Structures are given as C-alpha cells and as structure tokens.
C-alpha cells in the first residue's frame, strides 16, 4: 500500500517536472535559445525567475498567474502542460502496473515516449511545426528499445514504418503538399517504429477520428480549410498514446466484429 502511494507520488512529481521542462524546451527552441541556457526567465520582461516562481503548477497559483515584476499574465498553457505531464505519467505508471507483460524497462521506454509525444503535441498546437530533430531522436530511441532491448519482430516494425510514412507520403504527393507537410511523413515513420504492425493502424484511425471531431466545428464556424494549418501532429501524438496501451483490445474487438 505504502509502496504504491510512493510509486504514484514519485511518478506524479516527476511528470510535473517533465511538463515544466517541456514548456521550457518548446519556448526556447521556437525562440532559438539553447535549452541549456541556464535559469528560466519571464517571457515578457526577461527577468530571471527565483526557485519559488519555478515550482510546477504551485507557482502559477501562488503568483495568481502574473509575473511578480511586470504584472503581465503567465501563459495559461504553462500550468496546464505541467499538470498534464503529472497526470500522463500517473497513467503510464498505472498501465505498467496493471498489465502483466510490462516491466521496469517498459516503464522507462513509455515515459520517454510520452515525453516526446508531449513536445510534439504542444509544439504543433502552438506553432504548427513538427520538429525534425526530435522525430529522428524518437525514431532511434524506438529502435533501441523495441529491437535491441525487447527483441520485437523487425518485419512488423518495417511494415509499421511503411504504413506510417507511406500513408502520409501518398497524401503529400496527391495534394502536392497542400494537405500535409513533410513533418507528418517523418512523424508517421516514428509512429511505425514505436507501434509496428498492426497497432499503427489503430493510432492512425484514432488520430483521424479525433481530428474530425475537433476540426469539423472549426471548418464550419471559423471557415478554416483542411490543410496544414490544422495541427495534425497534435492528433497523431494523442493517437500514438492511445495505441500504445489500448489498441490491442480495440483490434481484438474489431476482429471479433468481423469474425
Ligand atoms: Zn515579467
């Protein structure tokens, strides 16, 4: 019991910290500042933040959402991403404890995976860009874990990669780059490495369903077009998370319907 509480407490705290790091990395990368550039600053006045202004979630509440010096609002997505980080780490911890195939190494892999997904999710949502270096890093990490540590089937991974990247490459060629960008093709490749066959299908399906549900009101009421201004990487990141844990039972359910 105590062990369980400690396990989830540590994961939650770790997730809050990673959420804070994701905010920092996204902001600094977009503004061409080195991620290792020392202490955090206010995004408005540039003042260095004290340690007590830098505690995930709590500082935002304590400072009532404003910079102590310039009184300008701290962007609301900061505490949201931190809290989201904590909750998603709790979810990963729960899945790893309750599925017998999982091990400590699965927990490490999945925490790395969801941290990368959180960056993809936020960056594409804020700036409509999928970072190439991040995707390459994620793909290499995926090969190391899935092939060298877990000895998964190489052919299933290759089929996953062919479907993940081929699906977007095809759309890219048909639309001459109007519907999606090159970033989606690379993200599809990373998803293929992580998920393999047949889970890649579940991730794509879930991402498109989510994309439709969210985008239809935008298309109708805001007169948007279905093109690269819709942050599709955000939906793909959500679909990948879903497929990591839930696709086995969903595929079984679907095959059950057919048979
Ligand atoms: Zn300030």
Automatic annotation (TrEMBL):
Belongs to the peptidase A24 family. It is found in: Cell membrane. This is Prepilin peptidase. The keyword Cell membrane applies. Residues 14-94 form the Prepilin peptidase A24 N-terminal domain. Keywords: Cell membrane, Membrane, Transmembrane, Transmembrane helix. It is a multi-pass membrane protein. GO terms for cellular component: plasma membrane. The chain crosses the membrane at residues 6-26, 76-95, 107-127, 157-174, 195-220, 232-255.
